[in-house]
Amino acid sequence: MRNKKIIIIGASSGIGRALAEILVSEGNIVGITGRRTELLQDLEAAQPDRYYVRAFDVTDTDGCADHLDALVSTMGGVDILVISAGGGDVNEALDFAVEQKIIALNVSGFTCVADWAFNHFKAKGHGHLAAISSIAGIRGSRQAPAYSATKAYQTNYLQGLRQKAHKEQAAITITDIRPGFVDTPMAKSPVKFWVAPIDKAARQIYQALRKRKKVVHITKRWQLIAWIYKWLPGRLHERI
Ligand SMILES: NC(=O)c1ccc[n+]([C@@H]2O[C@H](COP(=O)([O-])OP(=O)(O)OC[C@H]3O[C@@H](n4cnc5c(N)ncnc54)[C@H](OP(=O)(O)O)[C@@H]3O)[C@@H](O)[C@H]2O)c1
Prior knowledge:
Number of helices: 8
Bound molecules: NADP nicotinamide-adenine-dinucleotide phosphate
Strand order of the largest sheet: 3-2-1-4-5-6-7
């Protein structure tokens, strides 16, 4: 994949940042966003002719579309938009303030960006929207209920957009990226296994974008866990 214009929402750290670096090294132009301007500028400094920076908070849904319009205008267009911005916390105490923050980011912010991308690509005639959901969206979680529920929302929303694109004969590819554990500070689960290095995860995401996959598990072997977890009888799931 070369000479594409790609926006990554949430490229200041973690998977989004690693993916931005791969995309630039493969000869693409990348628009990078996040709230931490200085981290975005650090990335831009490595190859200023390849990166476009726009710092904004996706939970500020009133300003989100204007930021995206401005970024696309400075980039001269966009072919692919990847939503990596997302987060969660273990919240066994069910502190509502914690849940509310997660919902604002993974539901409101996500939806605002996804809707903008769908409408932009539909008006343009083609495009590719990808988002990083999670294996966590398969079943509810007692430790991080808002995280698992909002990731289920994202997967479901992407499915709806894929159906909408098909029905409206819009040439829009929708990719749902479902990681297991990736080695970033975001991976806060008390029990972790098969933790993928960031570069490996980003490389597999790059390949999925290149192949315009509908759904991809990161790393690939998480597909097995996803299958087992999905079909685990309810009475066993309740005991985990
Ligand atoms: N790491 C894992 O094990 C794992 C597993 C499954 C799924 N995921 C998903 O993968 C995605 C990326 O996570 P990561 O592990 O790379 O975590 P990360 O390093 O914390 O990256 C999250 C990115 O999102 C941006 N972001 C967060 N809140 C934002 C906001 N309000 N407005 C704009 N940007 C915001 C952050 O930038 P700023 O802080 O600068 O705003 C950062 O660039 C998330 O959706 C996460 O749920 C991760």
